[in-house]
Write a structure and sequence with these properties.
single chain; about 220 residues; alpha+beta; 4 helices
Length: about 220
């Protein structure tokens, strides 16, 4: 992980694709613990350090994760994420060219807990949740397209599921129909930008994460700021 922004109330880090945000059944060390250790060492703090998880990124996804350093910030950030007041922009490398250069996708997602997978439908189904995202094509190569994705809702595996539904599975995402895995176990989805009003000071916070160190990412983002 790399720290992208930090103040008294929040810390934003760039997560690598292999890290988990919060502890799970694997027992692997979560990013929240790594951040705690970083703060403990940086500020020479005795005892426990408070870190609040405000949202998650799937393990194989890289990019920005926002943590709270105070209880006040955590409560407010949780509410902001819940009500869509945090703007998140993702970059995704997908197979094929999307049907349009820019579009808003609306599907109804049904989550299968056993498979840890969501299924997208064009019409409402029992137990489904509406999922909306906007994408635009940023660049392309012979086999891949780089898309910028703005999430309008926050559903389970939403970007992965909706892009696969339009015939553009994310590179390396076996679960949603890409034929091969990436060598490092990642999928080529990156939480690129986050912007929101600071939960305490109310100033605008904007953070951006550099793309993963990978030749395809470099080739598709060459010349972009």
């Amino acid at each position: 992980m790399t720290v992208v922004y930090e103040d008294n109330h929040i810390i934003i880090v760039n997560k690598t694709a292999s890290e988990i945000v919060q502890g799970d059944k694997t027992g692997d060390k979560p990013l929240s613990e790594t951040v705690k250790e970083y703060l403990k060492e940086k500020y020479n703090k005795p005892g426990n350090v408070f870190i609040g998880v405000t949202h998650r990124l799937d393990r194989p996804v890289s990019g920005l994760v926002v943590f709270a350093k105070t209880g006040k910030a955590l409560a407010r950030l949780n509410e902001m994420f819940r009500t869509g007041k945090v703007k998140k922009t993702y970059w995704a490398i997908v197979k094929n060219l999307p049907p349009a250069e820019e579009d808003t996708l609306t599907h109804y997602l049904v989550r299968n807990e056993k498979q840890n997978k969501s299924y997208a439908y064009d019409t409402e189904k029992p137990g489904s949740k509406q999922a909306i995202l906007h994408y635009r094509l940023l660049s392309r190569s012979d086999h891949y397209s780089l898309l910028e994705v703005d999430l309008k809702t926050g559903r389970h595996h939403q970007i992965r599921c909706q892009l696969a539904k339009i015939g553009c599975p994310i590179k390396g995402d076996l679960k949603y129909g890409f034929p091969r895995s990436n060598s490092d176990g990642s999928i080529s989805l990156h939480a690129r930008c986050v912007s929101f009003e600071h939960p305490v000071s109310h100033k605008l916070i904007e953070a951006e994460a550099p793309v993963p160190e990978d030749n395809l990412w470099k080739a598709l983002t060459e010349g972009m700021s």
